[in-house]
Amino acid sequence: MKTTLFLKYATLGSMLLIVSACQQVQAVAEPAVLTESSPEVKLELQQQIQKAVGGPLVKLADNVYLFESQIWVESAVLRDDKGRPLDGRHMDLANLFILQIEQGQCQLKHNKSGQLFVLTKAKCMAEKQRFPEK
């Protein structure tokens, strides 16, 4: 009887340990690159960046995020009516945006605020998968 009771408790303990370990496994976002680009993907990226920093749509290169998982977006420099930069008015640092993939979902992360934007038009893959030498 003692052996049976011991086996029941040992089995219960093992099951609790396994369940606990399974709950602690979390998906980790990995730096990613786009698998392909299109005007729709570029517009989606511009709109998400605009949500994060405000202002007008930013200008992005056609090959944005195809080779690197990070881009820096500088704030616009305020200018006078003759187009000259206003002294002392440009205080914001550049914003870092990281393309990442988590559980097959392509996301854009604004590093300063930590905001995550799920991308629905963009398809991406882990940067280390496309460029294993990095």
From TrEMBL:
Residues 1-27 form the signal peptide. It comes from the Bacteria. PROSITE patterns: PROKAR_LIPOPROTEIN (PS51257). Keywords: Signal. This is Uncharacterized protein.
